[in-house]
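seq:
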Amino acid sequence: MEGIGMKCRLLKRQNESSLKVLGIETMDHKWCVILLLCALLHLSTMSQFAELEEYDLKMPGVQTEQEDGYVTFWYPVMSPDRTFYVTDIIPKPNHSTAHHMILMGCTESVRPGPARKRAEHSGACSILYAWAHNAPPLHLPLGVGIAVGPSTAIGSFKLELHYLPKVDYPDYSGLTLRYTVQNQPRVVGVFLMLSNWALIEPGRKNVTVDISCR
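struct:
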């Protein structure tokens, strides 16, 4: 600590000399402490990015029997033994076949292993992310994450993909999750608002649909 203090005082004197050359007098001698705090904050932020890992949720080479087909698979979370925080969801579709896809988080866990066509007990599922053509990836703000794993509401993932044309060759469309084991100060919550009575007439560019909370 003494060495750091001496170095800090030296930097302070050098900074004051530089400012005097420019005709500026320093008013506050606490700048060194502020500089160190900023450096520590920067290192903490960089460590968060450095610890991000990736987890793929992709179709396991599926083919469809007809046009306008829906395919659903269930996936285990990264590990059943610890909690993770998803910070980014990156869509990786085959644009020539995939029309849209929906990622859900389900309450019940799925045994570790490859994706499953059916889940024995998926429990209640809620939408986490939806993609359609030209939709952007989801990048959550720093310090915000989707909590998954033990002691959370998400024990498994469910990915539903809509194929518009018939798929005659193996397709691996899906998503990539970026996550960290570092606890995030804020956890994401999703509110789904929809209307069962919306009517979009052919040729209409704009349609107003009334949706409100009760």
